[in-house]
Amino acid sequence: METDPDSYLDVVYNATDRPFTEYPDLLAAHLVERFGVPVGSQLLDVGCGRGEFLRGFIRAGCVGSGVDQSTIALEICPDDTDIRAADLEVEALPFGDSSFDVIFSKSVIEHFYFPERLVKEMLRVLRPGGIAITVCPDWEANYKIFFEDYTHRTPFTETSLRDIQLIHGFVDVGCEHFVQLPLIWRKPWLQPVSTVARYISPDRWKRRSKFIRFSKEIMLLSSARKPAV
Fold first, then answer.
1. DSSP string covering 26-51, please?
2. Rounded Cα–Cα distance for residues 172 and 180 (Å)
3. How far apart, in whole angstroms, are the C-alpha atoms of residue 49 and residue 32?
4. pTM, whole model, 2 decimals?
5. Which end of the chain has the smaller Cβ count within 10 Å, N or C?
6. Domain residue extents for the chain
């Protein structure tokens, strides 16, 4: 990617427009519980950006490492966190084979012209039996706004996100639509309320209400395992 990484974060993820919140901690804790990630697991956050999700996983009990074009995540993560810089469009993940129990990425895979390269690298550095947890925008729900971020390259659907992982060696691949509302995670019976809000609320209301915004901006959540043998 030719975009300067620090400039990208300053414009798209600046702390004024997108302030730090408790959401990354809540998501990390939710995923750790949902997928049964043991305390002390070695976790790699691919495309860790500002570092708030990586920090969330560390707070949830993981031993976290990160990789991104920028190392700005060092500003908020514990001092001993291993965060490395790499342009993953053209470089391999800067870690050895079978180094991690868990690989996490959020809103990353859609930024690649050749996402299969990233998928194969994630498989390489994952330990046998380890899990890759991937979160990215659902093209069908976000096609109107997907290219508002001009660094988005490859849109994904539930089918294509599942298939790219199966084709390149992962097993036990699951993929589903995911609403970024902790309230829904705690009380799934409220899902119909979010669904109704998605269809009846004008798009302009997204700026006024996070409930409306995250009801409309549906993500994909995928889990996939590296074969144990």
1. HHHHHHHHHTTPPTT-EEEEET-TTS
2. 23
3. 20
4. 0.89
5. C
6. 5-180+219-225
